[in-house]
Amino acid sequence: MSSLFDRHKAVIPDWVALYYKDPLEITHGEGRHVWDADGRRYLDFFGGILTTMTAHALPEVTKAVAEQAGRIIHSSTLYLNRPMVELAERIAGLSGIPDARVFFTTSGTEANDTALLLATAYRRSNQILAMRNSYHGRSFSTVGITGNRAWSPTSLSPLQTLYVHGAVRGRGPYADLSDDRFIEACVADLEDLLGHTRDVAALIAEPVQGVGGFTAPPDGLYAAFRRVLDRHGILWISDEVQTGWGRTGEHFWGWQAHDQAGPPDILTFAKGIGNGMSIGGVVARADVMNCVDANSISTFGGSPVTMAAGLANLSYLLEHDLQGNARRVGGLLIERIRAACAGVDAVREVRGRGLMIGIELTEPGSDRANPDAAATVLEAAREHGLLIGKGGGHNTSTLRIAPPLSLTVAEAEEGAALLEAALREL
Description:
The chain is an alpha/beta fold. It contains 13 helices and 15 strands.
């Protein structure tokens, strides 16, 4: 393994992050488990950053990929593509957006990049509202609107970004308010901000912040924002790269916790729909999607192979009610995790919904972030046979738990016990 690590360091950029002091090479997986190059098995509670959504080596997906690859692998969007049209039809119908159009990309970054292009072209403005503690991707435009210092290497941007309060319930100047007062204060902040700007193109927001540590506002905040945005003609982009496809259990899309004012104008997705295949995309109202007045194509977006994978994966998800499973098993898992964290002084908060759970760690007796504790638990969990993630806007001090949505009750119980053992090492 050290030989592969040395080779990695010799050719891969230093800024490509690796987990663990002794990095892990995953060679294969099945269900909710993966194996490393030494043959050790791990229970996977991170799913390749919330991407292995249904299960590792899901037979329905691998079969669809193999069959499509045996026919044709690539053609580009210059030709009619049956799997792309079929998946677009299904996603448009599920999106909740009326008269929806769907454009496929290869990643969430590219999807958000496309959404920003659409919004700025439609509104003829380069001003964007984003949420503090947010993360929207790795491209030049998306790092420029990311509100998380750890993941934004430059402030240079073609966009003028203004950051809004509200995405982090438990920190910041409004943390001590009730939910209703919290929403009122954030809306007042938004109203005040818009009083100092020129025309704004869009607000982009993750219903539950992913890299930010699975933080979320009270339900209804973005509906309250939407009423303000509508008065100004400002578009709402819901970044569903991590929250989509039923992961939160209660809803198929994260925006549905804020649906009192209707669906977003633009929705972006990626990660879970491909179950590991590189699929991203944008859903938007026809007038917004069709506002681009220049030719465009995608070489790899909508690839026949990835679309076949997406169709098979989505069918499996819906036919097996994995959203319902995320709600039921996720509810059990978060209670087990809360019990495991009871009495651990470094745990500030356990939060989340469905199979999207965060454990924020701080220095005991304070609100100061504790990234060393997060790193310690991450390493210890691996030693006990459990893979988890980490994130958070405060020095990466939140553990992220996001298993495949087919997680069983027995695996949830096992994972919580392994996590408890890791937490004891603090």
